[in-house]
Specification:
Keywords: Nucleus, Transport. With 125 residues, the protein is mainly alpha-helical. It is built from seven helices and no strands.
Length: 125
């Protein structure tokens, strides 16, 4: 799925969104330690640092991740869903730092602001 996200990084926004939703749905089921040191948000930060050309696709994933906490279409056990929410909440500072760094890319400002809003909704309901 990571390869699809990279492949369609400049593709139609709806395609990027669907791929991002699929990755986020996977993240709901995969414990943080399986993403490497620090969970999916830190994995995403490392991917963005290593592959800046794919930032638009990665930003889409960063936007949908917190939204999937409350998406009950994804069949996940309540305990795992709560754990996923805690994982994301604990990585909020990392996510906001990524988004702050991306604000300098003028063509992505709207996308970055949408991602900020998504993370703020996670924190404040």
């Amino acid at each position: 799925m990571q390869n699809l996200l990279k492949r369609f990084h400049k593709g139609h926004p709806k395609v990027r969104t669907q791929i991002s939703i699929a990755v986020a749905a996977l993240a709901v089921h995969v414990p943080a330690e399986d993403w490497g040191d620090g969970g999916i948000v830190k994995w995403l930060r490392d991917e963005m640092d290593s592959n800046p050309e794919y930032i638009p696709g990665f930003l889409e994933l960063l936007t949908v991740l917190p939204e999937e906490v409350l998406n009950y279409k994804i069949a996940a056990r309540p305990e795992r869903r709560r754990q996923f929410e805690k994982e994301l909440t604990s990585q909020m500072e990392v996510a906001l730092n990524i988004l702050t760094a991306c604000l300098g890319i003028s063509e992505l400002k709207e996308q970055v602001l949408e991602a900020f809003a998504s993370w703020l909704r996670l924190k404040h309901g």
